[in-house]
Amino acid sequence: MTTGIDIRHYTADQAPTLRPLLLDMYAEVYEDAAQSDPFASIDRYAAGLDGWSSRPGWSCVVGYDGDESVGYAYGAPLPEGARWWGGLLTDVPAEVVAETGTRTYALSELMVRRPWRKTGASHQLHTALLSARPEQRATLLVDQTHPKVHHLYENWGWQTLGDLRPRIENAPLFHAMLLPLHDAQWQRAVSPSSMDPGSD
Ligand SMILES: CC(C)(COP(=O)(O)OP(=O)(O)OC[C@H]1O[C@@H](n2cnc3c(N)ncnc32)[C@H](O)[C@@H]1OP(=O)(O)O)[C@@H](O)C(=O)NCCC(=O)NCCS
């Protein structure tokens, strides 16, 4: 397995063409989770993808290893008064979650097919998506029952803001995380050894 993957960038006008590929990869990566967790169902995901890809500023990167798709990441800027922060359970100053439409990019999805796990492909996708963004900062939500994934993001420079449960049926409890994008430090922070997600 190579560690260098080709990354292609896509925008909302390409979403209809890309949709079947994104759904196929989701179905493969989340096959086990979808069987037991209604929040992970393919239908719910497809509706979420359609919602996200119709937002202004949606962007997506897909990784390829030769002819094979490896994984992808996508997101979009938060609009003014974003519902994203509506489920925040931790008290923070209002300024912290004040959105302008151009302040914060929400990283909605990042997934990598099993053969390309632990190769650096996930960080390549993450960095390719975020380094192309003009916003000041990025945010993501990570399921609190997945501490290793939380730790992975911490190693990539993300900071935990607090607890958040989206006001959506069956939504799990998440850590809400933030990453300042204008601090070039985050793009250099990760060495191969620091990508080990640890054992928590
Ligand atoms: C998250 C992801 C992109 C990271 O890829 P990676 O950098 O190659 O890292 P790994 O796949 O080794 O994941 C790191 C650790 O987190 C664990 N992990 C990854 N996804 C997980 C999930 N959805 N649930 C629980 N644990 C998970 C892995 O088992 C691994 O633990 P290990 O070191 O004991 O083997 C990839 O694991 C993935 O696609 N996971 C499924 C989708 C997902 O959870 N995306 C993140 C949403 S916030």
Quick recap of the structure?
The chain is built from 6 helices and 7 strands.
List the helices and strands and how they pair.
Elements: E1 6-11, H1 15-29, H2 31-36, H3 42-53, E2 59-65, E3 68-77, E4 104-112, H4 121-131, E5 137-143, H5 147-155, E6 159-164, E7 174-180, H6 185-188
Parallel strand pairs: 4-5
Antiparallel strand pairs: 1-2, 2-3, 3-4, 5-7, 6-7
Helix pairs in contact: 1-3
The protein binds coenzyme A (COA).
Structure characteristics:
disordered C terminus, binds coenzyme A, globular, 28% helix, 7 strands, 7-stranded mixed beta sheet, alpha+beta, Aminopeptidase
Gyration radius, rounded: 16 Å
The CA-CA distance between the termini, in Å, is 27 Å
The amount of helix comes to: 25-40%
Q: What is the tally of helical segments?
A: 6
Report on the biggest sheet: 7 strands, mixed
Number of domain units: 1
Order of helices and strands: EHHHEEEHEHEEH
Low-confidence stretches: 190-200
Using DSSP, what is the number of strands?
A: 7
Q: Within the largest sheet, what's the order of strands?
A: 1-2-3-4-5-7-6
Question: What overall geometry do the principal axes of the alpha carbons give?
Answer: globular
- Secondary structural class: alpha+beta
What would CATH call the architecture?
Answer: 3-Layer(aba) Sandwich
The top-level CATH class is Alpha Beta
Q: Mean of the pLDDT scores?
A: 91
CATH topology: Aminopeptidase
> Which ions and ligands are bound to the chains?
coenzyme A
CATH superfamily caption? Gcn5-related N-acetyltransferase (GNAT)
Strand content: 25-35%
